Amino acid sequence: MRKVYFLLVVIMLICLGCEWRLKSNEEVSSEQLVSIERYDRIESLYLTTGDYSALLQMNKSYPMQTRTLIEDVLQLGQVNEPDINLKFLHFFRDSTLQRLISDVQEQYADIDDLNKELTDAFVQLRKAIPSVELPQVYAQIGSFDQSIIVGHRMLGISLDKYLGADYPFYVEHYTEGQRRMMTRSMITPDCLGFYLLSLYPMPAKEDLTQEERDMHMGKIQWVVNQVTERQIFDNSKVSMVDSFMKRNKGMNMEQLLSDNNYSAIY
């Protein structure tokens, strides 16, 4: 009898230990729900030194990111072209782009704040829309082209588009209104907005009016405001969506984004 009692105690202790470990793992995974992969660092190493091992790592560890960057963002050609790596390297030999690489690495040496912001935002988004799948998030350096790249369940952040409203190149080439959106604080809202747009795209209708397009974006921007608990987007369409949702408290975010009857919101 004493042996049986001893075995029960051991089993209980083992189970308690398992439960503690499981809870600990759950807490860790929740805290690190989103972690931006630093593809930009490997890219920077190759583009500033020509380090062949960095190029190999880009192609081996990040094949889709490299293809997207070279073919779709920079539009240098196909990744399987014999001289594409030299084209890629020579493209960034421009002094402005070399300075850009250095500035990105300096400003974004630490991105713990972005990881936390994105994690918090996606936690809230998945509470509102449980069906939303988490994308693989990575950082890259473009050439002042696209801000956020979405595709293949991946979300790419072009850090070169978020160097601050007073960044010298921005001052020369962008309007004041555009520059206000090119800051670190806009990375999380832009990620959410572009990702939601990929999940809930505009209807493929040839006769879709500009008013309807604006309303579609207004719905997405309203959701981003709610999820981040910030009034990031403030325009007439967002205000109309806000009034609509207050009148229709039984409607959830997924229903709002899925419903393309824009006239109901007016």
Tell me the series of helices and strands, N- to C-terminal: HHHHHHHEEEHHHHHH
**What's the N-to-C terminus distance?**
76 Å
**Poorly predicted sequence stretches spanning 5 or more consecutive residues:** 1-29
Provide the residue-averaged pLDDT: 89
Q: What proportion of the residues form beta strands (DSSP E)?
A: 5-15%
The total beta strand count reads 3
Largest sheet: 3 strands, mixed
Structural class: mainly alpha
Global Rg: 23 Å
Shape: elongated
- Total helical elements: 13
Which percent range fits the helix content?
55-70%
Would you give an account of this structure?
With 266 residues, the chain is mainly α. Helix content is 60%, strand content 5%. Strands 1-3-2 form a three-stranded mixed sheet. A hairpin with a 2-residue loop joins strand 2 and strand 3. Helix 2 packs antiparallel against helix 3, helix 7 packs parallel to helix 10 and helix 11 packs across helix 12. It is elongated. The N terminus is likely disordered.
